[in-house]
Design brief:
- The protein contains three helices and nine strands.
- The chain is an alpha+beta fold.
- Strands 1, 2, 3, 4, 5, 6, 7, 8 and 9 form a nine-stranded mixed beta sheet that branches.
Length: 183
């Protein structure tokens, strides 16, 4: 039977089992041999990372051709207008590609969110806002690049869900094994 591990990746941790200069890696948290990340999260992003020992399940989770939605909470610098949110929804030209349309909504800071270590920078006179962004593609640093392109740099990025899998009940550095079924 396939194994599926849900892990709440802390800030500063690599999405791989091999350490690199000055960064923590998955091996520090997950003592299960033979599982590999299904997709990636940048070192400076936090949240849900799925790991499995099943190559076809790994592809089903990570490959954009399967259109599995990935939900992100992004804290951005500034307060995006409705027009800015619509620009994000319609797709943003990032130079080498235009992002697909996506779902974007303003949200309150998520109640279950933990304090980040280290904390994000705070500027007294510049407000921040939280957005929930649901993508069905996953290009390199896509959310950060999208929000910056419309004038609102991402200060903190948390992946909250991958399809039906969510962070619910997991604190940073915690993991749990779940039934390996993805619709």
């Amino acid at each position: 039977m396939s194994r599926l591990i849900l892990f709440n990746k802390p800030y500063g941790v690599l999405s791989q089992f091999t350490p690199e200069a000055g960064h923590r890696c998955l091996a520090e948290f997950i003592p299960i041999p033979g599982v590999y990340a299904a997709g990636r999260l940048d070192t400076d992003s936090e949240g849900l990372l799925a790991l499995t020992d099943d190559g076809s399940l790994q592809k089903r989770i990570a490959d954009p051709q399967h259109k599995l939605p990935k939900t992100y909470w992004a804290q951005v610098e500034g307060e995006p207008t409705d027009a800015d949110l619509e620009r994000l929804r319609q797709g943003v030209d990032l130079g080498e590609f235009v992002t697909q349309s996506c779902e974007v909504a303003r949200i309150e800071e998520p109640a279950a969110l933990w304090l980040r270590d280290p904390p994000i920078r705070q500027r007294k006179h510049i407000p921040t806002a939280w957005l929930e962004i649901v993508l069905r593609e996953g290009k390199n640093r896509q959310v950060r690049r999208m929000t910056a392109k419309v004038g609102y740099p991402t200060l903190r990025l948390v992946r909250a869900a991958i399809g039906p899998m969510s962070l619910a009940g997991l604190q940073p550095g915690q993991w749990r094994e779940v039934e390996a079924t993805i619709d």
